[in-house]
């Protein structure tokens, strides 16, 4: 039954641990071990412009579990977020993403990497200093790095978030508002947040060509983004109709979605990029 959920998630639900709390505890314990044991993997999903040119990728973490196979972040990120584990996991991801970004191909081809930040990680007092240290240690170009945060993270402590975003902007790092449109007061925040990019949530992208309400919402988001000079990434683009809808209204949009490529292991993504089939 649970196997249908596919690979990694399955076994987590087949251990006869009825209690959700117990399962969470087990995930937490195994994940704590996994970070040091080198079981985390970076997968990359391409971002492409309307001409089909790859502009970069989003970094999506996976857990290569010794027994359960490749586990998706939906299973372990929420667990990690309930403890300090998300901080060490986030540090691991950021350090390895920056090491990847330091490879010459990114500079040579002006490719960007986007990394997801969780609230607890971003709120750490030393976050900006830590990132600066990672950039220096790896030699990654901060101008090729984008950090994705969610509205919820910003709302919880607006002034602190703005101060951190300014400090990050001073480093040359771009900030992106992820899953845009799913939170509250989205449009009002755009006026006050020092961000460079928004990612339209895939729920709007999916319905835009077929549902007039979603279509108008997407048009509104695009128009506001244009006004504020923000780069727009559309997430979850799966059909040509969705891509066409967006391109007709925003020729400088960046697509991300299964239509253009699934997340794949970092090594594989780099190989494909440097020796196209
Ligand atoms: P997200 O940042 O919104 O990432 C996009 C998610 O949408 C990814 O799921 C991606 O695989 C999926 N996706 C991409 N294209 C399509 C599409 O065309 N159709 C559909 N249906 N889905 C698509 P994934 O990899 O399972 O990641 C889920 C979430 O886990 C991410 O959502 C992000 O919030 C979180 N996450 C992933 N990696 C990290 C990380 O390193 N740190 C933190 N804090 N969170 C992470
Ligand atoms: Mg994201
Ligand atoms: Mg997203
Ligand atoms: Mg999302």
Automatic annotation (TrEMBL):
Domain EAL: residue ranges: 24-277
Protein name per its UniProtKB record: Diguanylate cyclase (GGDEF)-like protein/PAS domain S-box-containing protein
Species annotation: Acidovorax delafieldii
